[in-house]
Amino acid sequence: MHASFRNGERMAESVHEAVLAALRNSRKYGDICEATLDRIAGRAGQRHPRAKEALKAAKRKLHQACGAYLDPMDLDAIDRRLASVPTGAKEEDLLVPCLDILRRHASTVERIPLLNVLYRDVFAETGPPRSILDIACGLNPFTLPWMKLPPSTPYHAVDIDRPLLERVQAFLSKVGRAGSVACRDVLVTPPTTEVDVVFLLKALPCIEQQERGAAVRLLGALRARYAVVSFPARSLGGRDKGMPVHYGDFMKNLMDQLKFGVKRLAYSEETCYICTLRRYAGNGST
Ligand SMILES: C[S@@+](CC[C@H](N)C(=O)[O-])C[C@H]1O[C@@H](n2cnc3c(N)ncnc32)[C@H](O)[C@@H]1O
Known about the structure:
Blueprint: H1 3-24, H2 34-47, H3 51-67, H4 74-83, H5 95-102, H6 115-126, E1 132-135, H7 144-147, E2 155-159, H8 162-175, E3 179-183, E4 195-201, H9 204-210, H10 214-221, E5 224-232, H11 243-258, E6 261-266, E7 270-276
Parallel strand pairs: 1-2, 1-4, 2-3, 4-5
Antiparallel strand pairs: 5-7, 6-7
Helix pairs in contact: 1-2, 1-3, 2-3, 4-5, 4-8
The structure holds S-adenosylmethionine.
């Protein structure tokens, strides 16, 4: 092996270590999934020979991946709202506190106008789900009151944002919802749980932005009957930028590669594609 190549590798490795240490100590990103910090620090170390630029690039990536959606200052407000929810409360009685919490996240706030129709329309296509895996869930588990699922239907939630997941776990425990909450980077460890319906709500653009080709790999690895994939109608800044057309092409490319059928549900805030995967063996299904 060429000596300058080995030197380059060693330099990238030391920048990786320095960036990882700085991210672990960062107030904003220190509680994000360790595998994500390591992956993003490693990438930054390969691209930027100087630790200062590498750290800046890593923080920019983390902002796009998760930091842009929830202000850590809002966690206290979520906690106060959660504290008002009695243990054993029924999901259907929690519309008001859940709406307050959903407003705190840049992604779920956009879903609020849809809540009365979204799950009605989705479950009309999939049938009543026997289990749900919500990948890159954000605060979406707080929309459970609108799903109208029996408490025994397991709801599995996965994200990289540990503080957010702690609030999701507190909510699921209070309402006695079956399921699980996992802090996991799906680019590093794709989910293997076999479920009836997977939610990938506004998740694939964020996943693909982190690594080209990651969306097709993730979708291809799912073991589920249906995947509900959605895309925002506008950018976080509120501009249209031709997003429905752009994501329509993105979705078509995924369908061509993975060969599944879709049903499209278009709303002014979000476009959903219900993908029929049929990779599910549970309860006698295919
Ligand atoms: C656009 S938000 C979508 C949140 C939610 N699904 C919704 O529709 O409101 C993207 C979410 O993906 C999570 N995320 C980003 N990268 C991830 C990864 N590699 N693995 C798991 N979750 C990730 C972020 O923490 C954030 O909560």
